[in-house]
Fold this sequence. Notes:
Number of helices: 10
Shape: globular
Largest sheet: 8 strands, antiparallel
Strand content: 15-25%
Amino acid sequence: MIATSRLIISLALTAFLPAQHRLEPDLTQMLEAKLVRDQIPGLSCAAFVGDQLVLALGLGHSDIENDVPATARTVYRLASISKSITAVLAMQLVEQGKLDLDGDLHGLVPEWPQKRWSVTTRQLLGHLGGVRHYQGESESTRRYPDQRSALRRFAADPLLHEPGSRYRYTSYGFNLVAAAVEVMRGEPFPAVLAAQIAARAGAPSLQNDDLRRVIKHRAQGYVRRGGQLQNSGLMDGSYKLGGGGLCSSAPDLARFAQALLDGALVSRSSLEQMWTSQRTASGEETGYGMGFSVSELDGDRRVGHSGAQSRVSTILQMLPEQRVGVVVMCNLEGVKLGGLATRLLRRLREHAGR
């Protein structure tokens, strides 16, 4: 592992960011401590208060073999944070009257066969649809041309339970939502993402993680086995763009979050639906709305998502009422970022309250 004395600290703050007094050093110290404690090769973070990015930095290396430092521009896989973006795309269609949250997807997506029970977009966005998650199959190295064709990986399998009766986390459920987005928009998911999210949020690096395209500043990924750092295994994420196949820099993901809070992507009414915990048919709260986990931090509403995947560990968290948020992404698998995000949020909330 890289010695602490050789860690490259690249504070890639843009010139227009105002001085943050003690805020920036406090946040940076928390991130540096996490980097060293968990022996993370590279990490990037972006944090915002209101309309301002108050922190955008990289620590360590995005590519160890070539001595490339991690910066604020480093692009990481989002992993399951992709689900939040897919949910926003679905809600845009709902607002336009093109998608019924409670309509059976069998009649909308031809590749999704008739099941014992009907499955709705609302249920899928809340992990209540009964669509299975991964079941021991290896990560795909196959390239799928679109999300509709990728449904063949699980579309023939029976539902695990009656939709609405149980909460069971599933990435494949979001793949089905992404296929519905393609059907309703009439174009591939990456094109929809570029036009409806990236362009509107001012987040150009937010895109599909295409292994064949050249993506500037893309991080390499690592895993630790037997105490030894190794390159992560190959994974082509084209089979699960909606559930975990996107990538972005930390600041651009923060801009996506800011655009949500500003009402630039969906309405306040849609956000309230997305950020309200769903319930099972028996009335049990799930702690998950539509594409976002929902919880509290010291009495304040907290929403966001985490991600764990080949090459990365990621997290996005926001306190909507305080209009603060944080993004942390690193290129090491299996890193727990929840505690760090909580500490960062508390510090940002303190700063926002001044």
